[in-house]
Amino acid sequence: MTVDHTQHAPPASRRERSRQRVHDRLYTSALELFAEQGYEGTTIDHITERADVARGTFFNHFQRKEDLVTTWAEHRREKLRAFMEESLATQDDDTTVQLERCMAALAEFNEAEHDLTRVMLTAWVKSGQPLLEEPDYAGHVFTKIVSVGQSRGEVALDIDPVLAGNMLRDAYLGLLYRWSQTPGDKAPLHVELRALLRITLTGVLSYAQRGWSSQKTPEDM
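^ that's the sequence the OP posted. Answer follows.
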């Protein structure tokens, strides 16, 4: 008979479950209000009134309103991780197909919550989060795809995979912010991301201008 020695975490107490419910209610209420009236237009009083808790209760869970942005970013990264892992379930595709699938997953992820993404990205940028954070999961995934592509001979060996991965991540974030802030009719995000990827993979110079070797740069021409 096999004995299971796996240690399981003890079940949460009633107090812990109650605290988590209040935490979730505050967070959900905040996101609803941010989407309805904007981040700047929402106060802590608005949030606690929507969540039906005392104002002081807010500070038992969040030190300041900006902490809600950090929590949103953390939840977003976890959801993004699941989206991208699912999109890369098949490892046999070539580098271009894998990158296209990643961009499609990122587009679907953001288009599903367009209004909230627009509001929270604005708050995220204003709070300085992009400057403080390490490269996120998307950058790591892009780096891995480029590195594997090199081992298959699909990506030039003189390309730094980390630099390429971070470049793709930065281009994605820049396009996402511009797309989310553009009012009215606009191209779907997946269309713009596909165009961005095509330019990244093929370059902007005409075929006649692509005559330099791997040792030369455009400045050398």
